[in-house]
Write a structure and sequence with these properties.
about 15% strand, about 45% helix, about 350 residues, 4-stranded antiparallel β-sheet, alpha/beta
C-alpha cells in the first residue's frame, strides 16, 4: 500500500498492511540530521512516513526582524517554531464590523498545498491544516480577552466563531476541489489539568460552532482529524458526537489513556498518537523508545484505526536518533497481523 492508502484506511477504522505514521510538524533540523533532507515530503518518502501536514498560505507584513502582522491582523513575534500573538485587532463588536476576512478563494492561499500534492505524487498523503473555531478568535482578541468575552461579550465571541465556520467551510470546499481528502482542525482547547474553560461553557457556547464546522467539512467529502493537547475527558462524548473521524494526540501528559480510548471509542473514531515527545523521543535510551512503541501498538492498533505518532510533533528538541529509531520500529513491529505475544515481551522489556 502507499502511505496515502494507509492513512485513509486507518481513518476508515480499517486495517492496512502496517500501522501508518505521520506528524503535524517535522522540524527540518531533525529531518536533515536523519536523511539530509529539509523537505518533509522527501524525508517522508525515504523514512516510511505516510503523510505530511501542510498549512494554507496567509500573507504577512514584516515589522522588524522579529515581528510581523499576519493576514488576520494579528501581530506576532517569532522566537521559536510557533510565532506568538502580541497584538490583537479585535476589542469589541465595532472592530469586528470593520474587519475584512481574508478571501478563502484567493489562489495563493493554496500554493503550498498544490506544491505538496505535486511532490507527493499520490504516494504520500497530504493533510491540510484548517483553522478551527477557537484558536483564531483567541489570537484575534488575546487569550484573556477572548475567554472573558464569553461572559462580557458573548455575541462577539459567537460572531467570531461563526466567521471561522464560514471561512473554513469555504476553504474545505476549495481543498476538496484540489484533491485533498483529509484535513486537521488543530485548536488546543485544554492543557494538562483540563479544559481551558468550564466544560458547561464549552458545550453551550463553543461546541455548536465546532460541530457545525465538522459537519460542513464532512459534507464536502473530507475526513476530519481533531487535534488538541491536554485533558479532554470532560468533553470526549461531545467531540466524538461531532462527527470527527480521528482524535489526536491522546495526550499522555494530559492523563489521556489511549488503551481506554481504543476500548471506549475505537468503534466510532480512529486515534492518532501517542509516543511521548517530551521525554521519550527527546532524551530516553533507544530501548525505551522500542518499549513505548510496542506498548502503544498493543493499546491502540488492533484491528486498524490507529495512526501512530508522537504525542504532539517532531519539534526541534527531538533527538534525531530517537525519531529515526521510532520510525524503524513502526516498520518492524507495526505489520499486520500484529504479533501480540512478541509485542508484549518487547513492551515489558523481556526481549
Amino acid at each position: 500500500m502507499t502511505g496515502k492508502e494507509r492513512i485513509l484506511t486507518a481513518l476508515k477504522r480499517q486495517q492496512p498492511d502496517r500501522i501508518p505514521t505521520m506528524e503535524w510538524v517535522l522540524n527540518p533540523d531533525v529531518t536533515e540530521a536523519i536523511t539530509g533532507d529539509r523537505d518533509q515530503i522527501a524525508f517522508a518518502k525515504k523514512m516510511g512516513v505516510d503523510a505530511v501536514a501542510v498549512s494554507l498560505n496567509y500573507t504577512k507584513e514584516k515589522i522588524d526582524d522579529r515581528h510581523f502582522v499576519d493576514e488576520w491582523g494579528v501581530t506576532r513575534i517569532s522566537y521559536d517554531e510557533y510565532p506568538t500573538p502580541v497584538g490583537y485587532p479585535i476589542k469589541d463588536e465595532n472592530d469586528f464590523k470593520n474587519f475584512k476576512v481574508p478571501d478563502p478563494d484567493a489562489e495563493y492561499r493554496f500554493d503550498s498545498i498544490k506544491q505538496a500534492l505535486r511532490e507527493a505524487d499520490g504516494e504520500i498523503g497530504v493533510v491540510a491544516r484548517v483553522k478551527d473555531i477557537f484558536s483564531l478568535p483567541r489570537d484575534m482578541m488575546g487569550f484573556e480577552d477572548f475567554l472573558m468575552s464569553f461572559y462580557l461579550q458573548p455575541e462577539l465571541a459567537a460572531q467570531l466563531m461563526q466567521m471561522c465556520v464560514e471561512h473554513s467551510t469555504r476553504i474545505g470546499h476549495n481543498l476538496r476541489e484540489l484533491g485533498i481528502e483529509v484535513v486537521v482542525v488543530g485548536d488546543d482547547i485544554a492543557n494538562n489539568t483540563g479544559l481551558l474553560m468550564r466544560p458547561e461553557m464549552y458545550v453551550e457556547q463553543v461546541y455548536p460552532h465546532f460541530k457545525q464546522l465538522v459537519q460542513n467539512l464532512k459534507k464536502e467529502g473530507l475526513y476530519v482529524i481533531k487535534h488538541s493537547d491536554g485533558d479532554l475527558r470532560a468533553v470526549l462524548p461531545e467531540l466524538v458526537d461531532s462527527g470527527i473521524d480521528c482524535l489526536d494526540p491522546i495526550d499522555p501528559l494530559g492523563s489521556m489513556d489511549i488503551a481506554y480510548m481504543k476500548k471506549t471509542y475505537g468503534g466510532r473514531i480512529a486515534l492518532k498518537g501517542n509516543i511521548d515527545c517530551v521525554k521519550t523521543l527527546v532524551e530516553k535510551p533507544l530501548a525505551d523508545v522500542r518499549k513505548e512503541t510496542a506498548r502503544c501498538i498493543l493499546d491502540a492498533s488492533a484491528g486498524g484505526g490507529h495512526i501512530i505518532s508522537s504525542s504532539n510533533s517532531i519539534h526541534k528538541g527531538i533527538a534525531p536518533d530517537n525519531y529515526k529509531y521510532f520510525l524503524e520500529q513502526v516498520c518492524e513491529l507495526g505489520v499486520y497481523p500484529l504479533d501480540t505475544q512478541a509485542l508484549e515481551k518487547i513492551a515489558n522489556g523481556e526481549i
